[in-house]
Amino acid sequence: MSLATGGGMAVVLGITEENIVEVLEQNGLYSIDIANVNSPYQVAKLWSPENKRSWEEG
């Protein structure tokens, strides 16, 4: 994983996995994936550079 390039990862706090999936789908961000669910309210997500811009703008 340390050699991977061209993407990113973030942790989202205070929102459930189901809510994150709903927001991603509503904004057409289908290539952003849930990478890990650390707890019901702490979720890590992965994205490509193109979708990171869309996520930040949305």
Task: Describe the protein in words.
With 58 residues, the protein is α+β, with helices and mostly antiparallel strands. It has a single domain, classed as 2-Layer Sandwich (Alpha-Beta Plaits), CATH 3.30.70. Helix content is 33%, strand content 33%. It has two helices and three strands; from the N terminus they run E-H-E-E-H. The chain has helices at residues 17-26, 49-57; strands at residues 8-13, 33-39, 42-47. A three-stranded antiparallel beta sheet has the order 1-3-2. Strand 2 (33-39) and strand 3 form a beta hairpin. It is flat and about 30 Å long. The mean pLDDT is 77.
Let me know the average pLDDT: 77
Number of strands: 3
Instruction: Report helical residue fraction.
Output: 25-40%
Q: What profile does the largest beta sheet have?
A: 3 strands, antiparallel
H and E order: EHEEH
CA distance, first residue to last residue: 28 Å
Widest beta sheet: strand line-up:
1-3-2
Given as residue ranges, the uncertain stretches (5+ residues, pLDDT < 50) are none
Tell me the number of helical segments per DSSP (H or I, 4 or more residues long). Answer: 2
Superfamily (CATH H level) name: Malonyl-CoA ACP transacylase, ACP-binding
Radius of gyration: 11 Å
CATH architecture: 2-Layer Sandwich
